[in-house]
Design a protein that fits this description.
By secondary structure, the chain is mostly beta strands. It has two helices and 42 strands. The strands form ten sheets. Strands 1, 4, 5, 35, 40 and 42 form a six-stranded antiparallel sheet that branches. The protein starts with a strand and ends in a 7-residue tail after the last strand.
Length: 502
């Protein structure tokens, strides 16, 4: 037991876990992972920055972003800024189109026009003017309840339009005549279920109209609701608390519900009420990892989700227990099914544009993510990581810690300054600031690289501490300097366990 030993940790793909007891965490899991992305081979890198699209503040929050792809191939960016629907140029200049009654409108595209509801009016925008949707001159046509709705979708199979969110009839679902967004019969109203409360979400999944309640999901896959109005409850056991969290993800649909972030497979659309689906059909992605974060969300109804298909990440902007607006982003890497968190970004909404740009509606600005090495307000990205408490494979023995080894990626033009804190049995024993991760010399003019440059470097620090468990904390607060941590290792000597004889 007196020989020195070395234990290395080079895999952090388990991501953030704040639910499991500390001693039961996997070695590749983290207790803190702020403003960091997981690398596919196991390392950790600081997230990229944000920049402002509009130079001058709108002086109002950007509540919703919409990209309209027109038939001529052009793209138009629309935004709800304060209480105005606006057209936004590529340079962020906004032009007011219409007043709106809510900060999130329900919208859909049809015949190269945008139809939208805001809880007060039902209107259509053709790219130049906004007009109230005019009803056919027919006594059966009644658009008055549609004007009160906040959600609208188009069902491609039946060519009908479905609306919900009427505050005077919260469980009602309205449907149009085929291909006619301006023709809703007075009798064209149904209730997919009773006793489940108000409709909380509305979307299309596969060939089904999917209606969300807080604790259930009901679907319809027919052609004419007046003839084949058969609604089926899919056995998810949960619904959604936020319509804006419902997002199509890889081979699935993901949404925020009570007690978790859920992902359902298209195969569940064929299940009946008598079958109990498994995790392959309904998965709580946050279970035993970050459920405590989900349960602590303040105002879950304003949470907003997006799936970044390019980087394969689902991101949920949410309000923590201390906030009034969405002030944190829970990020799930779809490849590793593991989580990290972003801070310092106030995100009312997201939009993934067709060119791959990921936009954020924030306070007074539209932000573009994944740009540069600092945030739009000029502040550095506060990267902070904390590992689990490692027992170094000797859970019941005290260890004398002798040396700490770290492996970094060295930037080509700058030097990462990483603060490393070593905790032994919850007490900080050492704080080490590593600025020169490798002896280097700046060579030549501005274009010059680092003399003797190495991409991956290893440092060794002498340590003198004793305890049962060790934990590392990493922090980087630099602007415009990428930071990558590959792993750490501890050189230690186990001490024979002592105790009373039984």
């Amino acid at each position: 037991m007196s020989l020195n030993q070395l234990r290395s940790y080079y895999d952090f793909r388990g991501g953030l876990n704040v639910d499991t007891a500390l001693d039961n965490l996997m070695d590749n899991e983290l207790t803190l992972a702020e403003n960091v992305d997981l690398m596919e081979r196991g390392g950790l890198q600081k997230r990229k920055g944000t920049k402002r699209i509009n130079e001058n503040s709108y002086e109002k929050p950007v509540e919703q972003l919409i990209e309209w792809g027109k038939n001529d191939g052009s793209l138009m960016l629309l935004a709800i800024i304060g209480t105005k629907l606006c057209k936004v140029s590529d340079t962020g200049v906004s032009t007011e189109i219409a007043d709106v009654a809510t900060d999130k409108i329900g919208y859909m595209f049809h015949q190269d026009k945008v139809f939208f509801v805001d809880g007060n009016k039902y209107r259509v925008y053709d790219g130049s003017t906004v007009q109230d949707v005019a009803a056919y001159d027919d006594e059966e046509n009644d658009l008055s309840p549609i004007k009160k709705c906040t959600m609208i979708v188009r069902h491609p199979k039946s060519m009908r339009f479905f609306c919900a969110g009427n505050p005077t009839d919260k469980a009602a679902l309205y449907f149009s005549e085929p291909g006619a967004p301006d023709f809703f019969k007075e009798t064209s109203k149904m209730y997919p279920t009773t006793g489940d409360g108000p409709i909380t979400g509305l979307t299309i999944f596969g060939d089904a109209v999917m209606v969300f309640f807080k604790h259930s999901i009901w679907i319809w896959r027919g052609m004419d609701p007046e003839v084949d109005a058969i609604w089926e409850k899919i056995p998810t056991g949960v619904g959604t608390v936020s319509n804006s969290s419902i997002v199509l993800t890889t081979n699935s649909l993901t949404f925020l519900g009570d007690g978790g972030l859920y992902s359902i497979s298209p195969a569940i659309l064929s299940y009946t009420l008598t079958l109990q689906p498994g995790q392959d059909l309904v998965a709580n992605l946050t279970n035993n990892k970050v459920n405590s974060i989900i349960n602590s969300i303040n105002r879950p109804e304003v949470s907003f989700g997006i799936f970044d298909a390019i980087n394969q990440k689902y991101m949920l902007a949410y309000t923590d227990e201390h906030g009034e607006r969405n002030n944190r982003i829970l990020v799930m890497d779809w490849g590793t099914m593991a989580f990290t968190e972003y801070t310092n970004i106030q995100a009312n909404c997201f939009l993934l544009r067709r060119n791959g740009d990921l936009l954020v509606g924030s306070s007074g600005y539209i932000l573009q993510m994944n740009v540069g090495g600092s945030d739009a307000d000029g502040s550095p990205i506060p990267m902070k990581i904390r590992t689990k408490q490692y027992n170094l494979d000797f859970p019941f023995h005290k260890k004398r810690i002798l040396r700490l080894y770290m492996s970094f990626k060295q930037p080509e033009q700058e030097t990462s300054i990483v603060t490393m804190r070593l905790y032994v049995d919850d007490t900080m024993e050492n704080e080490i600031v590593k600025a020169d991760v490798y002896d280097n010399f700046i060579w030549g003019d501005d274009w010059g690289g680092i003399w003797g440059f190495r991409n991956q470097v290893t440092t060794r620090s002498k340590v003198s501490a004793s305890g049962h468990r060790v934990q590392m904390e990493f922090e980087n607060l630099q602007k415009d300097v990428p930071t990558v941590i590959y792993g750490c290792a501890f050189e230690f000597r186990p001490v024979r366990a002592k105790g009373s004889r039984l």
